[in-house]
Amino acid sequence: MNLKNYAFCFLVFSCLFLVNQSVFARQSTGTVSGIEVEGFFPLVGDEAATLVVDVSAEKSLLTAVENFQHDVQTVTGKAPEIVKRAALKDQSRVVLIGTVGESPLLEALEQSGKLDFSAVRGRWEVFHRQVIQRPFPGVEEALVIAGSDPRGTVFGVYDLSEQIGVSPWTWWADVPVKRQETLYVAPAPLTSEEPSVKYRGIFLNDEDWGLQPWAAKTFEPETGDIGPKTYAKIFELLLRLKANFIWPAMHPSTKAFFHYPGNAEMAKNYGIVIGTSHAEPMLRNNVDEWHHDSFGDFNYTTNRERVYDYWDERVAESKDIAAVYTVGMRGVHDSGMEGAGSTEEAANMLENIIQDQRGMLEKHKGGDAADVPQAFTAYKEVLGIYDAGMDLPADITLVWPDDNYGYIRRLSDASERKRVGGAGVYYHASYWGRPHDYLWLSSTHPALIREEMMKAYQLEAKNIWVLNVGDIKPSEYNIQLFLDMAYDAPAFKQPEHVQEHMKEWYRGIFGAHGAAIGKAMWRYYQLAFERKPEFMGWSQTEPTTPIHESAYSPFLAGDEVDKRLQAYQDLVSALEQIKPGIEAEQFSAFYQLAYYPIKGASLMNQKFLYRQKALDYQQEGRLSAADYAKKVHEAYDDIVKETAFYNQQLADGKWNHMMDHAPRRLPVYQEPEMAMEELSAGIPSVQVSMERGGIAEGKLPVFNNLTKREHFFDLYLSGEKTASWEVVAKPDYILLDHSSGVLSPSGQKEERIWVKVDWANVPFSTAPLNEEISIQVDGKTITVPVELTNFQGVGSDLFVADNGQVVIYAENHSQRKANGKQNWERVDGLGHSGAVMQAAGLKLPSVEKDFGRQASLTYEFYLDKAVEEASVAIMALPTHPVTDENGVKVGVSVNGGPIQLLDFQTHGRSEEWKQNVLRNRAVKTAKEISLKNGRNTLEVFWVDPGVLLDVIKIKVHPELEEGYGLLPETKP
Description:
The protein is built from 20 helices and 38 strands. A hairpin with a 7-residue loop joins strand 6 (127-133) and strand 7. The chain is an alpha/beta fold and 972 residues long. The strands form 7 sheets. An 8-stranded parallel beta sheet has the order 12-11-10-17-16-15-14-13. It has 5 domains: 3-191, Chitobiase, domain 2; 199-493, Glycosyl hydrolase family 115 (TIM Barrel); 529-669, Methane Monooxygenase Hydroxylase, Chain G, domain 1 (Up-down Bundle), CATH 1.20.58.2150; 686-789, Sandwich (Immunoglobulin-like), CATH 2.60.40; 799-955, Sandwich (Jelly Rolls), CATH 2.60.120.1620. Residues 1-29 have low confidence and may be disordered. It is globular and about 100 Å long. Helix 2 runs parallel beside helix 4, helix 6 (228-240) runs parallel beside helix 7 and helix 18 packs antiparallel against helix 19. GO terms for molecular function: hydrolase activity. One of its GO terms (biological process) is carbohydrate metabolic process. Keywords: Hydrolase, Signal. InterPro entries: GH115, GH115_C, GH115_sf, Hex-like_dom2. Residues 1-25 form the signal peptide.
């Protein structure tokens, strides 16, 4: 094949590969072709190349090679032979797999000058892949996969599996492979980079309603629990995702990891590093293993000897496995440590406890405790103890948690970043606890995960990353994203990369449908960012409260309820259109990775938003209220049906007992009671309900020629009588989407009429125009008052006041001013408005003086009259101080006036914090602001690094009725 034909074939293959195969072989730039290309290594040609490993290869590598053999057979139908050799001869083509420093075959190749492993040797989990000719006498060609250590080799093997079209999620999400008859591997040498984070993995948690019953009843009934068979599949998934670390399941429903000897043995066989959560020191599962009746109190002050022996026994038992030991002490489960009378006393106790624990490590593991990986997680009350002056040995990794809702509570300051043990992050994609669980659907926004974890990476938290994934399913994409970032953080430096990552992930699985599915899932995360499905009942837990009415209003902002329902319906409709084109073997993956979460979230919103309509409309006396109550029950029934399909029919029952639509049986998951009252006699048959939220009582919101909004009014039946209606009078420039209709108790019981204005024909007036729409209903007249404001001479670059407020999205500033490294940077994809402005310069100190020199954002807006007492509400994401040396403040000045400091910081689990995380929004208000007629200027100053500005509301009317959702900007 000449060079021209080679280039053409390579280009064609590359395009096909990007469309049909997963492109997430992190850092892997090698290429596998399904057609023969000159110079490419024939992994599978007329026959499959032989897989060669050393006779001394460890179990984790042999397991990976066996899985690779199966992968090749799944793709091509041909199974490569696996041979274990100390020497090679008389082999045509081989795939030689080994670990540098442990493989005599690789050592022979390096000594002969065929290969150079200097870029690999001594590094952490690095692999090298290269094709060489005639490596040994009698061997024509070899594809070499060499690792710097056993896991590096394993990653090299699974990287090639992904290249040939086997997704890491082939088993866990039923992602099919694309079958090909032949496979050819590009010969160019490839050396991976070291992973960005040393220990990266997942925490199996709150497994009571998914993973544990599924394992016990469906996948591993012989154990009746999460046992070695289940962990083997989990460990394989982690390795295929290039992860290496796990905190095992530990709830009361599950026996301790070490209860089943096969679990630890399986970890050794796969090369997975074992750790334990923040509440489980020294690899102990207190919930299952601490027996109070026989052991006494879990109290190191009053019961030191028994607690010591309890830990010491586990260290002795685990001395030969790869582990990161959690040090310190909390309560038996997720609670505070017993025995301390004060925070200072607790700090002293922890110092002594950790000293004893390190002694155990030295006794059983040998050598210096500093050489044994250890972690201290500053979770909940432990952060306060650490801050009380606790002396933590510098070699222990300091693991910073998020607040359970995706916002990291704190990261290392300049002195902490010098710790030799480094830092890490414990992050939640699933949570049980107050203010409310989110254990059902995975809905933490990928852009938030990226922003928080990349912030952690910039501040040197690179030693341990652990993601609380609940039951693994349905958190597949967020697991993929988190572990991809942990493996190759620099690839995610730019915020927009995360959206592209999602699209490519779905494209790799679903081919031509992937872009549309990825787009729908991104919107799904955006809607959940505004309010998670699990939070739609406006209830809380710990203590558990009943459901409450929704803050979404059917009367405000163009009907917030309908808008949200329609947004979800659009997603469901998009997937319904895609579904017929999904191949049969792709359907299971399609249902798990897109359809069920979107459909479930849509139905949960229907359940509560139709409930809100029913309640509000019942108060108005609408005949249709009972119809909405019926829809509530239908939505609940559909959630039950979809979940039953997931468990019992999908993939022939493979996932039976995995999905539970009502974890912990909290009120939000139950079928709401809908007691509808009988309509009172004597009420007029037809009534009008107008959109609210304006500054004029008894009218539609005021229309203006700058924002050009449309508003609505409803005509509805309040009695069992058919009625005809018709608009009989209105100005010509007031336009309606329709002007007549019939309302019937057995048919259409209500009708919405949208009103807009033909501004080109509105007569000029310096004063507001007050008009009416007259509607005749069976001989009676109903009027709808309409007020219009026709602004003149206002520039199109200015925001304006619309119905009592100016709404500005933070990214739409008119000027941005920097001060050295201190700046404001746009973060795309994040926030309610779709982008936020971050106070950049994460390592910079906070500044609360010399505001004239600070980085700032400027916004300009127009008022048609002066206002003496306005307010400026700044909405930010509810982040926490970047370090203990920072806060979460901004400065606000209007028209060059005095600067008001706004502080978004919350403390503990205050009610303010609870509301912030439930709505993903922190709000602070500058008050007593004087505004002038005409152009006004708002300037927001940099004070603390890391603040994420989202939306600004300037309120010029003191009593505005507000809903819940995002309002559109008030700009021409």
